[in-house]
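Archive transcription. Copying these from loose printouts into the bound notebook so they stop getting lost. Printout 1 of 2:
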Amino acid sequence: MQKSFQNLRDPQERERKWFASLLWRSFPEATSEAELADLVAEALTTAQRPVNPRTVRNWLRSENAPGLHYVLAVLALAGAETVFELFDPEQTA
C-alpha cells in the first residue's frame, strides 16, 4: 500500500512544482515569495472566488494543489506556449 502511495506522490509533486514555476514566470516583476503571493492573489480573485495570498504561498511551496480553474487562469496569463509544457515537460528551457 505504501509503495503505491509513493508512486502517486511523485507525479503530484512534479505537477505542483510545475505550477509554482508557472506562477513565477507569469509575474516576473515579483522579487519575493510574499510579493508574488500578493500579485497572484490579486490577479486571480473574483467576486465569487477570493484568493488569499496564504493560499498562493501554499501553491508555491507545493503544499496544496490549485483547482483547475486557477491553473487555466494562470496558463492564460503566462502565454499560450506554456500549454505545450503540459505535453512535453522535458522541452522546457
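Printout 2 of 2:
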Amino acid sequence: MENYTVYMEDVTIDTVTETVAIVSFLVGIISISLMVFLFFLICFGKRYKKHLFYRLVQLDFVTNILCHINTWFAIRIEMHPDLVFILKFIEYTVPGLLKWLKYLCYWFFHVHFWTAELLTLHRMASILFPYRYNKISNCCCIVIFIVIVIVSHIPKLIWTGFLYEIYIVDGKLIAIVYPNTVKTAIDVVAVFSIIYIALIITTGAEYLWFVLQLVDVTSKASIKRTLRNTSTVYSLVYMGEVVWSVLNAANSHFHFFSPWLTEHNTTFLLIVSDIFTLSLPYILIFLDKNVKDDVWSCFKKCSTLIQGTPAVVSRSSFI
C-alpha cells in the first residue's frame, strides 16, 4: 500500500465520537484527580509505607495518568476539528513531537502489561517469601521502572521508522500515513497480546497452585485477600484491552467488523483503553480495606468542614 497524506484540519466529526469524547473527558478528569489523591494518600499514609504492593500501585498511577493524557494529544484531539489548532501549536513549538506522542500509544500498551503483571508477581512473592518480599527498597522500584521503560520499547525494533509523521506545510497541519508500517505494528501488538494473555493466565494458575500447596501462610488473611482481589480484577480488566487488540489485528486481515464498527474502531479502542487506564483507583476503593477506610475518613472530615458548626440562636432574640 502506498503512503498517503491526511489534512488534519479538514477532519469531520460525528455524534458518537463527540459524545464519547465528552464522557471520556469528564470521567478522565474525575479519575485522574482520584489517582493523584490516592498517590499522595499512599505517600503520606503510615499504613502503606511497609508494603511494596502500594509502591507498585503508585507506579501504575503514574503510567496510567501519563497514558491517558497522551491519548488526547496523540489520538483524540485530531478527531475534533475545533481543537486541531492545539496540535498545530505543539508542532510549531516542538517540531516532531506529535509523531513521538503517537508512538507512545503503542509503548504504553506494553508498559500496561508489565505494571499489571507486577501486581500478580507480587502476590506470588508474598506467599513464597512472606518475610522478605516487602523489604525491596525504593531504589529497586526505580530500577524496575527503568527496566519496564526499556523492555516496552523492544517491540518497536521489529518495524522501522514511524507509523505517522506530522508536518506543517503551507500553514496546514498534515499527517503522512505509512499503512504498511501501521499494519505491521498492529500485527506486532496482536502477537504480543496473545503472549501477554498466555502469561497472565499462566501466572494466575501458578498463583492458585501456590495457594493450594502452601496452606500455612504467615501473612494475615485479610491482607492476602486484598492483594489477591485487587491484582486479579486489575489483570482481568487488562485482558479486555489485549483481547480487543487481537480482534483489531484480525479484522485488518479478514475484515469481519461491520462497516459501522470499522468506522468507529478508534473510538471503541479508546473506550477499551480508558476502562483499564482509569479503573485502578475504583478497584482499590472497593477492594482495598486500607484505602477504603482512609478515603471514607477523608470524606467525613471534608463533609464536617463544609457543613461547619451549627449556628446557635439565643432565645432572647425572640423576646
